[in-house]
Each structure stands twice: as structure tokens, then as C-alpha cells.
UniProtKB/TrEMBL annotation:
Coiled-coil intervals: 124-310, 346-408
UniProt GO MF annotations: ATP binding; microtubule binding; microtubule motor activity
Protein name per its UniProtKB record: Kinesin-like protein
SUPFAM superfamilies linked to this entry: P-loop containing nucleoside triphosphate hydrolases
Extent of Polar residues compositional bias: 1-18
Length: 788
């Protein structure tokens, strides 16, 4: 076998068919044209090269011919057989003491080995280049797809907003029409009530008129009966006169006179009958004259009875007839006068009856008109009620559609936030939240100028802020903007998912930036006392421990460690050091202990000799926070009674293990309260306060330099210019999820500092620091993490 390998000659450049350049050209062709099938020979050679370098494992047989050297590069292509032959080749030396020949063969052998290694390196570089190109093209396609989704979502949001405004306008029109219908309905009801009252009065008047007509009809019947009795009496009187004429033939003159008187009486009777016929139309005043007419009729009856007695006397005594006729004439004259008065009264009754009949006719017409209007009002009320029901159903439908639109808007906003966070994570940007504190009693004394406002446009609602300086408006847009009336709970809800990422194995950093007195410490720590005044740090810890209990049911067990430090005058201080208090700062500074910041290869930060405390509950952490707050450096300035004179850094290390899957995660939660920037002309700092102010401004200036370098993507980022930037290096330039709170004061006298803070926050928001990476792996048997 050895002799066979020795007899096999190494491949020469003239016999090779494929070169490295041709392989790279073939790869470029496949990248530019995905439909083109890959080069079988190149893929085979690449597998063979990797196989040889990784230990020479057996590979499946290949059918491609060996590669040739390119004309320009001078790199030889190798197959698996060539590499094996090269590795198994032995020197063929006839004379073992011929060192010259032996050295020439060794030089030739080393030359071929170098060519093989160079060929393999060239293939590896081409493979890495192709992987990078594919990764870039994949990222670009993914970013284009996300951008198209965002554009479509914005279009949908605009359509929903337009639809919502249209439905709101329709709703307002429906409410206006409903109010008009309600007013008209009330007017109809009032009109109906007035018509009902008028109808009742008309019915009462009609009833009284009917009663009067009934009484008049009764009186008319009695008068008719009386007239009939008079006619009967007249007929009897005429028969008696004829008998009297027969008996008084001797006195013809007197008889003629009696006949004339009787004819006159007949004329008067006929006129009386005519007048009585006219009294049928009497109505209203007949009741009043009933007694008078009765008395007159009785008088007439008495007189007629008296005439009858006179007639009997005339039959007996013809001589006394003239006297009796005279008396009869007198009685007849009285009856004629009474009949005349009765005629006048009858005429008056007829006129009154006619007027009342006309009035009754008018009342009946008014009643018919009122009934018609009542019927129309009932129909209108029914139509109004039906329209009201339709409008009510329409309003209910509009309310449902409005609720659906509100729900879609909320879901769209959630999806927008989720996509926005996904884009930021893919781009590696630092998220920026802005919070404006409320106006205090001594803010803006002597001026009513409002320098901070919030735009109401839908595309920047809740994310935009406008700052006015010297009449010029400056607009900024961030990931979220909190107004002065937003509570601590509202602020924490927006970062709760970021805190959850620490339990999932990510490194999370949240820091507050702004001028002194703008509310940074209140945002991060809150105020002692009421639970609603708790800051982000206590609320984050409560969420971490609550979620820990939930995840324990899924097989997870966690260990948590806490450390707290401050950077005071470019010096690190351990706030949890034993026997540490705010009164022995000088002694600790003179103790000579130095704290060094170190970063390992995994991007983790360690501070040497820093006190790390194991915690099991949020109460333990609250106790440590109170202890650290008592040890932190604070001072009084003209801008703030309790001004933080150092940068406070809270770190929670989370180590978790899932017993069922043997999965292990390591997360870090960094919560940082930076000292406030201030101007010496406004703070009035002197002595130690002046030294502190200079150190604070220097470290914040270094932070600004780092942000500028990251924004410009410079090769050198000056993280080591201050302890603060060096400590934040993994958060600003690594694979951490980073969020910055920029706190702004609405005081008009601080508008300059507020504008600088907002501009700095805009630059921070534009920085790309890298894609966050989850720290997770499988637990090994010798893992140092042990969960009790």
C-alpha cells in the first residue's frame, strides 16, 4: 500500500481542470441566478476539503474530475483522493544518506501541502462571503416585507379613522334629528292636550244646547196642544153664534154687529194661528216665559168661560146681549194685545234659536276639524314613534359599529407597537420614552407662557411632543410620550414586557436621563408611602417575583442576585457595603478600596469587590433599596431641594433552570437613575457641589460623545472616557434591550435644557446597537448554577 502511494505522482497544475477562480465565478453565478443548478464539482470539492481538515472522515464517492489550477491565481484544486494521497505519501529515497535529494522531495511535498491549505482557505473565504451575502439579502427582504406590512396597516388605520369620523358625523345628525323629532312630538302632545280640552268644552256646550232644544221642543208641543184647544173652542163658539143669530131674528142690526165682531174674532184667531206656527222655532227664552204664557192662557180661559156664561145669559135675556158683547169685545182686545206680545217674543225666540243653531253648526265644524287634526296627530305620533324606533335602532347599530371600530383601533395600536418593537429589535435601536412632569407651584412664576404641548394628529398621537422656544416650535417623535397627568402605573405598563425579557434570558437596561429636577428619581424610585407612587424599580421587582411564582409551575427555578452602586465624582461606591451609611463617606473614600469594571467575552459586566446579595422576595429587595437610598449622595441646589449628586445603578441578575427540559437562562436587569445635568449659572453650586456638578456634566458629556460615535457608526467609540460610559458599554454597544427615559421639565425657565435633552434623546433613538441575543443553553452536569 505504501509503495502504491509512493508511485502515485501529485497532481500538476497542467492536469487540473477547475481552479479556485472558476469555483468563485460558479458561486457568483448561482447567487445572481437562483434558478441555475449548483456546480456539482465545486460542492463536492468543498465537502472534501472540509472532510480532510476535520479529521479525514469518509465521504460519499464523488464523480467529478479533479480541479485544475487557474492561470492567474496559482492555487491548485484538490479532490479527496488527491488529499489522501498527499497525506499518505512517503519519501522515495534510494540512498537514505542522500540528504540533498531528501530535502528536495521534502520541499516539494511542503509546497504541495501549502497549495492544498491555500486552496482550502480560498474555498472557506468564498463560502463565508456567500453566507454574508445571503444573510444581507434575507435581512433586506425581511425588512421590506415588514415595511410593506406597516404601510398597509397605516392605510387601514387611516381608513378606519375616516370611517369613524363619518360614523360620528352620522351619529351627530341622527341625534339632532332625534332631538327635533322629540321637540315636535312634545309640541304635538301639547296641541293634542289643548284640543282635548277644547273638545271637552265643546261637548259640554253641545250638551247644554241639546238640553235647551229639548226644553224648547217640549214647550212647542204644549203650545201646539193649546192652539188645538183654541181651535176647538172657536168651532164651538161659531156653532153657538149661529144658534144665537137664529134666536135673535128680531134684532138684525145687533146680530149683524155680532157677526162682524165674530168675523173679526175669526181673523184674529187665524192670525194667532199663523203666529203660533211661527213660534215652533223658539228655543232659549221659552222657559223663562212659560209661567207668563200659562197665566195668560188661564186668563184667556177664564175670559172665554165668562163669555160662555154671557152667551147663556143672552139666550135667556136678549136684552143683555149688547152689554155682554161689549164685554166680549173688551176681552178680545186684551187677548189681541197679549197675542201681539207673544208674537214679538216668538220672533225673539226664533232669532235666538237661529243664532244658536249657527253657533252649534260652527261648533260641530270645529269639532270635526279637531277630530281630523287629532286623527292626523295620532298618525303623526305613530309615524314619529316608528321613526324614533328606527333612529334608536340606527343609533344602537352605530354604537356597536363605533365600539367595533374602537376595538379595531386598539388592536391595530397593539399590532403597531408589536411590529414597531420587532423592527426596533431587528434594527437594534435604543428605544426612547419621554415623560413630562407636572408644573410645580414655583414653576413659571411671573409668566403664563406654555412651552410644552402635545400634537393631536393620529400619526403622532401619544408619541409626539412640541417645545416652543423664543416663538419657534421644535417637534420631536419618540416611541412613547407620557403627559403630566399620566400615573406611575401608566408608565410601568409600557415597559412591563421589557422587564419580562430579563426572565426570558435577555440583558435589559433602562436608564433615566434629564436635567436636575425633571423627575428622574421619581420615575425610577417613586415616593415612599402610597402604593400608586411606586417607581419603575419597585414595580419591576414585584413583577419579576410574581412571574417567577407563575413559571415555577412550569418547572422553572430561579436564583436572583442584587447589587447597587453609585458613580460619584468618577468614583464607584458600593451602596450595599457592610456598615455603610451616608455619614461615613469620607472614611470609605479613604479606605483605599478600588472597584474595577470588567467585561467578559460574553458581554457580561462585573465590578470587582462589589457586594452581591441573594434575594428571594420583593420585600428583601425593598429593604436593600431603602438602605441604598440612605447611602446615596444627595445635595441641595437652587434648582432642587433633593438633587441626586451621583449616578445610581441597580442590577438584578437572574439565573433560571427548567428541570424538565434542562434549559438554562441567564438574564440581567439594569435600572439606572442618572444624575441630572445642570448649568452652574442656575444651580449656584459652590465648593463640593461645584465639584460634583463638574463631574456629572463631564460624564454626561462622555455619554453624548458615545452616542454621537454610535450614530455615525464610527470604528472607535470612546466608552473608556468615563466610568459611566464604560459601565454602560454592553447596554449601548452590545446585544442588550435598552430603553432610555428622557425626563422633561415644563418650566419656561428650563426650556433651553429641555430642548438639549430632547435633541439628545432623538440621537439616542437613532442609534443601532445590535440585535438583542437571548442567553440560553442546556444545563451540563458540571454546571455551577444550582437551584435549591
Amino acid at each position: 500500500m505504501a509503495s502504491k502511494n509512493q508511485n502515485k505522482a501529485p497532481p500538476s497544475p497542467s492536469n487540473s481542470k477547475y481552479s479556485v477562480d472558476e469555483v468563485s465565478v460558479d458561486k457568483r453565478r448561482r447567487i445572481g441566478n437562483p434558478k441555475m443548478p449548483p456546480n456539482t464539482v465545486t460542492r463536492t470539492q468543498t465537502r472534501q476539503a472540509f472532510s480532510v481538515v476535520n479529521g479525514g472522515q469518509d465521504l460519499p464517492p464523488t464523480s467529478g474530475p479533479p480541479s485544475n489550477c487557474g492561470s492567474d491565481c496559482g492555487v491548485v484544486g484538490f479532490t479527496k483522493e488527491d488529499v489522501e494521497a498527499l497525506l499518505n505519501e512517503r519519501l522515495r529515497i534510494k540512498n537514505k544518506f542522500n540528504y540533498k535529494e531528501k530535502s528536495e522531495q521534502m520541499a516539494e511535498y511542503i509546497k504541495r501541502l501549502k497549495q492544498c491549505i491555500k486552496w482550502f482557505q480560498q474555498l472557506q473565504e468564498n463560502y463565508i462571503t456567500e453566507l454574508e451575502k445571503q444573510k444581507k439579502s434575507l435581512m433586506k427582504a425581511k425588512e421590506d416585507e415588514l415595511n410593506s406590512i406597516i404601510v398597509e396597516l397605516r392605510k387601514n388605520l387611516e381608513a378606519l379613522q375616516e370611517k369613524f369620523s363619518k360614523e360620528e358625523f352620522d351619529k351627530l345628525e341622527a341625534l339632532d334629528s332625534l332631538s327635533r323629532e322629540r321637540d315636535s312630538r312634545q309640541a304635538v302632545e301639547r296641541l293634542q292636550a289643548s284640543l282635548s280640552e277644547e273638545l271637552k268644552r265643546t261637548q259640554q256646550d253641545n250638551a247644554s244646547a241639546n238640553q235647551k232644544m229639548q226644553s224648547l221642543n217640549d214647550m212647542y208641543k204644549r203650545l201646539h196642544e193649546y192652539n188645538a184647544s183654541l181651535q176647538q173652542y172657536n168651532s164651538r163658539l161659531q156653532s153657538e153664534i149661529h144658534t144665537t143669530n137664529d134666536a135673535l131674528k128680531r134684532v138684525e142690526k145687533e146680530k149683524a154687529a155680532v157677526v162682524e165682531n165674530l168675523s173679526e174674532l175669526r181673523g184674529h184667531n187665524t192670525s194667532l194661528q199663523e203666529q203660533l206656527t211661527l213660534s215652533r222655532a223658539l228655543h232659549d227664552e221659552a222657559i223663562k216665559q212659560k209661567e207668563a204664557l200659562g197665566s195668560e192662557v188661564a186668563c184667556l180661559r177664564g175670559e172665554l168661560q165668562k163669555v160662555r156664561e154671557d152667551r147663556d145669559c143672552q139666550l135667556l135675556q136678549v136684552q143683555a146681549l149688547s152689554a155682554e158683547i161689549v164685554k166680549y169685545k173688551e176681552c178680545t182686545g186684551k187677548s189681541i194685545a197679549e197675542l201681539d206680545s207673544l208674537t214679538t217674543k216668538t220672533n225673539e225666540l226664533e232669532s235666538t234659536c237661529l243664532s244658536q243653531s249657527e253657533q252649534i253648526r260652527r261648533l260641530q265644524e270645529q269639532l270635526a276639524f279637531a277630530e281630523k287634526r287629532l286623527q292626523l296627530s295620532n298618525m303623526s305620533a305613530l309615524e314619529t314613534r316608528s321613526e324614533f324606533e328606527e333612529q334608536k335602532a340606527l343609533i344602537h347599530d352605530l354604537k356597536n359599529r363605533l365600539a367595533d371600530a374602537d376595538l379595531k383601533i386598539v388592536e391595530g395600536e397593539k399590532l403597531r407597537k408589536k411590529l414597531h418593537n420587532t423592527i426596533l429589535e431587528l434594527k437594534g435601536n435604543i428605544r426612547v420614552f419621554c415623560r413630562v412632569r407636572p408644573l410645580l407651584s414655583d414653576d413659571g412664576v411671573g409668566t403664563d407662557t406654555k412651552v410644552v404641548s402635545f400634537p393631536t394628529a393620529m400619526e403622532v398621537l401619544g408619541r409626539g411632543i412640541d417645545l416652543t422656544q423664543n416663538g419657534q416650535k421644535h417637534s420631536f417623535t419618540y416611541d412613547k410620550v407620557f403627559m403630566p397627568d399620566d400615573s406611575q402605573e401608566d408608565v410601568f405598563v409600557e415597559i412591563s414586557q421589557l422587564v419580562q425579557s430579563a426572565l426570558d434570558g435577555y440583558k435589559v437596561c433602562i436608564f433615566a436621563y434629564g436635567q436636575t429636577g425633571s423627575g428622574k428619581t421619581y420615575t425610577m424610585m417613586g415616593k415612599p408611602g402610597p402604593p400608586d407612587q411606586k417607581g419603575l424599580i419597585p414595580r419591576s421587582l414585584e413583577q419579576v417575583f410574581e412571574t417567577r411564582q407563575i413559571l415555577e409551575a412550569q418547572g422553572w427555578k430561579y436564583e436572583m442576585q442584587v447589587s447597587m452602586l453609585e458613580i460619584y465624582n468618577e468614583t464607584i461606591r458600593d451602596l450595599l457595603a457592610p456598615n455603610r451609611s451616608s455619614f461615613d463617606v469620607t472614611r470609605l473614600e479613604n479606605s483605599g478600596k478600588q472597584y474595577a469594571i470588567k467585561h467578559d467575552a460574553n458581554g457580561n459586566t462585573h465590578v470587582s469587590d462589589l457586594t452581591i446579595v441573594d434575594v428571594r422576595s420583593s420585600k428583601e429587595v425593598s429593604y436593600l433599596l431603602e438602605r441604598a437610598a440612605q447611602s446615596r449622595s444627595v445635595g441641595k441646589t437652587q434648582m432642587n431641594e433633593q438633587s441626586s449628586r451621583s449616578h445610581f445603578v441597580f442590577t438584578l441578575r437572574i439565573m433560571g433552570v427548567n428541570e424538565s427540559t434542562d434549559q438554562q437562562v441567564q438574564g440581567v436587569l439594569n435600572l439606572i437613575d442618572l444624575a441630572g445635568s445642570e448649568r452652574l449659572s442656575k444651580s449656584g453650586s459652590t465648593g463640593d457641589r461645584l465639584k460634583e456638578t463638574q463631574a456629572i456634566n463631564k460624564s454626561l458629556s462622555s455619554l453624548s460623545d458615545v452616542i454621537f460615535a454610535l450614530a455615525k457608526k464610527e470604528e472607535h467609540v470612546p466608552f473608556r472616557n468615563s466610568k459611566l460610559t464604560y459601565l454602560l458599554q454592553p447596554c449601548l454597544g452590545g446585544d442588550s434591550k435598552t430603553l432610555m427615559f428622557v425626563n422633561v421639565s415644563p418650566d419656561p425657565s428650563s426650556v433651553g435644557e429641555s430642548l438639549c435633552s430632547l435633541r439628545f434623546a432623538a440621537r439616542v433613538n437613532a442609534c443601532e446597537i445590535g440585535i438583542p441575543r437571548r442567553q440560553t443553553n442546556l444545563r451540563t452536569s458540571d454546571s455551577r448554577l444550582s437551584i435549591g
